[in-house]
Amino acid sequence: MDHTIDYRPAFALLTVSLDEGESIRSEAGSMVSYADGIDIETNANGGLLGSLKRSVLGGESFFQNTFHARTAGDVSLAPPLPGDIVHQRLEDEAMYVQSGSYLASDVALDLDTSFGGAKTFFGSEGLFLLKLEGTGDSFLSSYGAIHEVELTEGEHYTVDTGHIVAFDGTTDFSVEAVGGLKSTLFSGEGLVCTFTGPGTVWLQSRSMDSFLSWLIPKLPSTNSA
């Protein structure tokens, strides 16, 4: 399964070249185009309960698309927001992905919603994270550019929760408040995630929460006089 990623980092487009018999699974709504000889199947992967859990708790779509190649051809995919796409090959390992950053993956990879524990309660990723596990190719998307940070054993690295894309299953993490209690509860600021290596952390250069906080006060009011 070859691939190319064009127009990075602002308007990334993923093109996956499937050989005859190969398949790729993608988030619903991400398809841009596909070649003749490619069949598309839309279903609730993981069954009704698995798809419902992934949709309600993980923030992803209930249905997903699977592209099957009857003959060799290309499938192009893109995320809904302007930003980057990164490829990560998993080799019998796990990776945790924040809500909205999953784009596509090899059908051999298991995709499930994983409970992150009480320590994620105050994080923007919520109580649940998407978990990719197994061996195969995965593709993640972001709002803004993607920055990759490699952590050595025992190394600490702190990230604003709104800028997290994904992290290796080998890393440990904790969510904390930087400011005081008032700032944490009422300003929406001051929440960070501290990762401990070894492993890789993927960050996005922009935060949707910060953008919405800037945008919403500027929108015209719908109240009539």
Automatic annotation (TrEMBL):
Classification of source organism: Archaea, Methanobacteriati, Methanobacteriota, Stenosarchaea group, Halobacteria
Lineage: superkingdom: Archaea
InterPro entries registered for this protein in UniProt: AIM24, AIM24_sf, Trp_RNA-bd_attenuator-like_dom
Protein name from the UniProt record: TIGR00266 family protein
A UniProt-annotated Pfam family: AIM24
